[in-house]
Structures are given as C-alpha cells and as structure tokens.
C-alpha cells in the first residue's frame, strides 16, 4: 500500500514537470514582455529595465525557470501585479467563500443525481424514464448563463426571495443567505448531465447476473438496489465526483462572477482581465497538483469500495 | 444462365460500414429530424456567411428596444415613451440647425466691421463645402430612417433586428464550434494514431503530453491561454478551443489503434509492403473513422457552449462580431428593463441547435456501433 502510494507519487513527477514547463512556456514566450504590461502607457526605457530586473526577466531562460520552480516549491509567488496583494494571501482569503458555495453544491447535486438516476434506471423504458431523459437533454442544451441570468432575475430581482448578490462576514449568514441561490442554480445546472451519466452506470449493473441471483435468493428490492447495485455502480460515480474535486479549488467562475462571491473563480477572471500573470500561474500550477493528488486518492478509494481492485 | 447467376453473386459487394450505418440511421426518426435541423442551421450559417441573408444586421431599423410584433407595441405608457422619444430627435437631425456653421458668427462680424467700400471682394466661408455635404447626407439619412415601432422578434438597444442578429450570431458560434472541433479532431486523431500505432516511447511521450493537459481543469486552461494571448477574435477562440480540446479524442483513437494494429488486415497490408503511414491512415483510419465522427459532433456541442461562455466573459470573439455569447451579455442588462426578447432568441437558437446536435450524435453512435447500447 505504502509502496504503491510512493510509486504513484514518483510517477507524477514528470507530469508535474510538464505542467510547470507548459505554464512557463505559455507565460514567458507567448505572453510577451510583462514589463510593457506593467509599466503601462507612460514608460521610459529606464523604468522598463528596472521592472525587468525586479522580475528577473533580464536573466537567461534557465535562471527564470529556476526562479519559477523555487516559487512553486516555496509557495511564494510574490505580489499580484494588479493589487500588490501577496498571491498566497489572495488564495487563502478567497478559498473560504468558494468552498462555502461549492461543497454544499457538490453534496446536494451528487445525492439528488444518484436518487434520480436510480429511480429512472429502475423504471427504464417507462414514460417517467423517457420524460426525465428528454427533460435532461433539453435542460442540458440551455447555456448555464441563461439559467443564472433568469434565476437571478426572477427569484432575486423580481420576487425578492434571495439577495441579488453580495457576501457577508459571518459564515452562517453567507451559507444561509447569500449562498442559497447560487447553490440552487448550480444544482439545477449540474443535475441534468449527472443524472444522465449515473443512469448509464446503474443500467450497466442492473442487468448483471448477480442482481438476478440476489432476487432469486429472495432479497428485498430495496436491498438489491441500494446495497448490491449501488456498491457496484459506485466506482464510476466516485470517479466522476473525484474529477470534480479539484474544481472546488478553482471555484465556479460564472456563479461567483454573477453573484459577486469573493471566491477564487472570480479572482481568476479578474486576473485574466487585468493580465495579472502571477495569480493565474499560481492557480494553474497548484490546481494541477491538486488534480494529481485527487487522482491518487480516487484509486485508493476504489480499493476501499471494491476489494477485487488490485493496486499495482 | 447458372454461370451468369454465380458471377452476379460473386460481384455483389458486401455492404461497407457506412452503407450499413446509413441503412440503420434511415430508420431512426429522431435522428433524421435532428439531422434536418442541423442541416438547416448549417444552411443558415452558409447563407449568412456568403451575405445572402442578414448582411444588413447592423442597420438600426427599429426604435431602441423595439418589442416583438406579436406582443404589440407594449403598454400604452410604454408606447408613448417609445414613440415620442425618437420623434423630436429625428426632426433635429433633418433640421438645418443640426449642422451649425461654427464660423457663421465670426464671418458675420467680419463682414459687418468691413468698410462698405470693400464690399465687392466677397468673404468666402471656408467651411461652406463641408457643411453642404454634411447637410445633404443628414437629409438623405433621415429620409429613409423611418424606424419601426415593433420588429418581428424585437430589437436591441440600438434598434437592430434581433432576428438578423441571431442569424449572424449563429454564423459565428457555429463556425467556431465546427472549426475548433475539426482542429481538435485532427490533432487528437494524428496524436492518437501515432501513439497507438507505434507504441513504446512515442506512446509514452504522447501519454505524458496528455496527462499534462488533463491535469489542468479545462476552463482554467482556456482562461490562462486567453490571458496570455490577450487578443480577441474568432481565430483566437478557435485556436484556444482546438489546441486544448484534443485530449478526449486522443485517448479513444489511441485505444482503437492499439486494437487494430495487431489485426490480420494490417498484417496483410504489411505483407504487401504498405508503409507505416499508409497502414495508419489508409488501412486503419477508415475502420476507426466512425469514432472520430461521433467525437467530432460531440465536441462541436462542447465548443459551442465554451465559445458562448468565453464571449460572454469578454475573452471571446471581437467587439464588432455578434455571437450568442455577446448577445447574452447584452441581454443580461436588457432583462432588468423587462426586454426579454434578445435573451429568448439567443437561448432558443442555441438550445435548438445543441439539442439537435446531441440527439444526432446519439443516433450516429447507434447507427455506427450497433454493439453499443
């Protein structure tokens, strides 16, 4: 087990190096000279040279790459070019709001999608199944933007059930006042594709021989469905949920932008608008690391769920 | 006669993959209807691109925020507001006073101050020609500028026809979706073919490339490339989406090539001396092309959705280009004033195309791979 974890971590090194190189290449060669971005309209050669020296971009490429790697390891990406705030501080202060919205969103969405998918998979071919599937297809074809715009307009602006946007100071206020509508919209948007996906997972299992055997032994339907089928279908479901986990760190760009939630997603959008490279670089690299770690965790979880899985 | 029969049967070719698929597809009513809808949108895109329709989408034909015809010119108070506001404006424009000669006062003063003896040498207004031109132009402009109170599907803030705008937006969004999907499919197929066919270190290299790209969340990758490029435009969006979106196709095509390269027909091709390239793209590719087609149409939908989000956020197509994303961006503020028609038009067009494309993909998959369920 430990040997497996160590080997897996060792295997992520080349990938991580690739991510670092990709980000470095993008921001160094494609991005152009940041000194001109920073100096703005009024600039003289002296100023630009100064900025260059500060950022270290007058150095040869390998020195710059080494600076970048040191930044990643130490977690010190310097200050944001736009606000002069420490990049690490930006992360720490923005993570809370993002998680306040996204964790309940992911939990509610997963539970509802599993329940709905199980129901329609059980009633496969019936009118309910077909209506739900048609509803999912049509619902999925509408842009997430439209859901946010319409729900914000109807429920918050017209009916006044929720605040239109904003963020408070206490956790309870944030969760139960400001996060409610964003969570509702998020669940509605992700419920349709997840239900469709989980339905296929359940359908793959529901026709297997072991299900027939369990029924032949006189097991109750609830036990067959929720214990036998559920446990076997849970592996692809875990994969799907784990894929979404690194997204928690990035935040939900659009939802945070529309509802003015001071999370990481909104910060990334602002950084892209202001060409604030240190923030984008840091987010990209750390999220990539988080993705690799969740992939490893997912594999360990498989082992816990399904003893047949061999970790090699 | 019996010999004729045997030659006839021996010459009858067994139907190929695409013929069989077409036969199955013909019986799929949902698939056929979606196919027709997609074809309709493609025709719309082509007609708009060549300028047959909606070439004058930027003309301001209606009053500002003109409501759709079937709702009528809205409530009485709103009508008053709408009808009354542009009226004096128009009169102002056609009025001569709109183009005031800035030198008129000075000239009059000079003329008055001159001694009457010098009256035979006339003072010429240096701006006379320019003013005449301006007056003439504003006169003709206001002559054909009878703005409609309602438009078929309503008008936007500047009074442009929402229907024509939607058609133009369809052109942009669909072109981006199709072109980016083609680029992604090309990259994914070539990379997947090389990795799956050659295996060994080439496979390792492309797998490494794949894991690098997939360890960064899709939207974050797109946004950071948009931040670096820092320029808007249709081509930029196509490049961003195409260069980042090849990973899924790569994975599938690689698996297909690994499966096919050991089959007998490839060994036979090797035996008759076909080169690696020929085996890869002439012999194997037709046998995996159905996977590419299904993935292609799946990615068109994905990229259309991504383009809409990118353009909405302002990282997408240029400011003078209309896409569904930029329409939704305008619609957001319009909705607060109760003007829902631009939102509805863009949403309906997009939902229709995306649903049809999704159902068509399912139908294609069923027809091309009957073993799958």
Secondary structure: elements and pairs:
The complex is a heterodimer of chains A (312) and B (373).
Chain A: H1 2-30, H2 34-39, H3 45-55, H4 61-74, H5 87-122, H6 127-141, H7 144-158, H8 171-178, H9 180-206, H10 209-216, H11 221-250, H12 253-258, H13 264-273, H14 277-305
Helix pairs in contact in A: 1-14, 5-9, 5-11, 6-9, 7-9, 9-11, 10-11, 11-14, 13-14
Chain B: H1 2-11, H2 17-26, H3 29-49, H4 76-84, H5 86-94, H6 104-113, H7 128-144, H8 162-198, H9 200-214, H10 218-229, H11 234-244, H12 247-260, H13 264-271, H14 276-313, H15 324-336, H16 341-368
Helix pairs in contact in B: 2-16, 3-8, 3-16, 5-7, 8-9, 8-11, 8-12, 8-14, 8-15, 8-16, 10-11, 12-14, 13-14, 14-15, 14-16, 15-16
Question: What report would you give on this structure?
Answer:
- The complex is a heterodimer of chains A (312) and B (373).
- Chain A is mainly alpha-helical and 312 residues long.
- Chain A folds into 2 domains: 2-74, no CATH class; 88-305, MetI-like (MetI-like fold, Orthogonal Bundle).
- Chain A has 14 helices and no strands.
- In chain A, helix 5 crosses helix 9.
- The longest helix of chain A is centred in the middle third of the chain and has 36 residues, at 87-122.
- Chain B has 2 domains: 2-56 and 162-368, MetI-like fold (Orthogonal Bundle), CATH 1.10.3720.10; 74-138, no CATH class.
- Chain B has 16 helices and no strands.
């Amino acid at each position: 087990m430990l040997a497996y974890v160590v080997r897996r971590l060792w295997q992520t090194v080349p990938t991580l190096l690739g991510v670092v190189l990709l980000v470095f290449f993008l921001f160094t060669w494609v991005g152009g000279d940041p000194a001109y971005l920073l100096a703005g309209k009024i600039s003289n050669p002296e100023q630009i040279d100064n900025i260059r020296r500060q950022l270290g971009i007058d150095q040869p490429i390998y020195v710059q790459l080494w600076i970048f790697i040191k930044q990643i390891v130490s977690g010190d990406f310097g200050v944001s070019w736009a606000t002069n705030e420490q990049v690490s501080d930006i992360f720490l202060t923005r993570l809370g709001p993002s998680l306040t919205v996204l964790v309940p969103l992911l939990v509610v969405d997963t539970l509802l999608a599993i329940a709905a998918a199980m129901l329609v998979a059980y009633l496969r071919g019936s009118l309910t199944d077909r209506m739900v599937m048609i509803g999912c297809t049509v619902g999925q074809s509408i842009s997430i933007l439209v859901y946010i715009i319409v729900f914000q307009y109807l429920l918050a602006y017209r009916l006044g059930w929720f605040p239109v946007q904003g963020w408070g100071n206490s956790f309870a206020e944030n969760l139960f006042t400001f996060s409610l509508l964003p969570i509702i919209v998020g669940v509605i948007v992700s419920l349709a594709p997840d239900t469709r996906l989980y339905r296929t997972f359940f359908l793959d299992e529901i026709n297997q021989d072991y299900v027939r055997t369990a029924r032949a032994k006189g097991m109750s339907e609830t036990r067959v469905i929720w214990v036998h089928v559920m446990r076997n279908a849970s592996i692809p479901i875990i994969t799907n949920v784990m894929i979404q986990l690194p997204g928690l760190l990035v935040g939900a760009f659009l939802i945070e932008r529309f509802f003015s939630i001071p999370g990481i997603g909104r910060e990334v959008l602002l950084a892209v608008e202001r060409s604030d490279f240190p923030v984008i670089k840091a987010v990209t690299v750390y999220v990539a690391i988080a993705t690799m770690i969740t992939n490893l965790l997912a594999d360990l979880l498989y082992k816990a769920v399904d003893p047949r899985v061999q970790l090699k | 006669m019996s010999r004729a029969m045997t030659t006839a049967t021996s010459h009858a070719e067994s139907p190929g993959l695409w013929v069989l698929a077409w036969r199955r597809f013909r019986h799929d009513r949902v698939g056929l209807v979606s196919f027709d809808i997609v074809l309709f949108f493609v025709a719309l895109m082509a007609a708009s691109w060549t300028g047959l329709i909606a070439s004058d989408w930027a003309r301001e034909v209606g009053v500002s925020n003109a409501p759709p015809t079937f709702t009528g010119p809205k409530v009485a108070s709103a009508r008053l507001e709408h009808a009354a506001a542009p009226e004096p404006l128009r009169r102002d424009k056609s009025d001569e006073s709109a183009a005031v000669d800035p030198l008129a006062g000075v000239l009059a003063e000079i003329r008055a101050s001159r001694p009457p003896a010098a009256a035979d040498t006339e003072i010429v207004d240096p701006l006379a020609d320019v003013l005449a031109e301006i007056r003439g132009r504003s006169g003709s402009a206001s002559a054909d500028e009878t703005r409609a109170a309602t438009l078929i599907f309503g008008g936007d803030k500047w009074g442009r026809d929402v229907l024509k705008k939607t058609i133009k937006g369809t052109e942009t969004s669909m072109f981006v979706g199709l072109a980016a999907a083609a680029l992604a499919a090309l990259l994914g197929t070539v990379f997947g073919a090389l990795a799956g066919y050659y295996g060994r270190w080439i496979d390792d290299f492309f797998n490494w490339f794949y894991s690098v790209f997939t360890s960064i969340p899709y939207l974050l990758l797109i946004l950071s490339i948009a931040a670096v490029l820092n320029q808007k435009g249709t081509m930029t969006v196509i490049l961003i989406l195409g260069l980042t979106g090849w990973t899924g196709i790569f994975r599938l095509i690689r698996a297909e090539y690994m499966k096919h390269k050991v089959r007998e027909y490839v060994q036979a091709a090797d035996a008759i001396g076909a080169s690696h390239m020929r085996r890869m793209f002439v012999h194997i590719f037709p046998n995996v092309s159905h996977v590419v087609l299904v993935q292609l149409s799946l990615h068109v939908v994905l990229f259309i959705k991504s383009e809409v989000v990118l353009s909405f956020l302002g990282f997408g197509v240029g400011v003078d280009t209309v896409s569904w994303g930029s329409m939704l961006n305008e619609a957001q503020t319009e909705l607060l004033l109760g003007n829902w028609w631009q939102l509805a038009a863009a949403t309906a067009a997009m939902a229709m195309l995306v649903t049809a494309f999704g159902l068509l993909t399912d139908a294609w998959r069923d027809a091309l791979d009957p073993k799958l369920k």
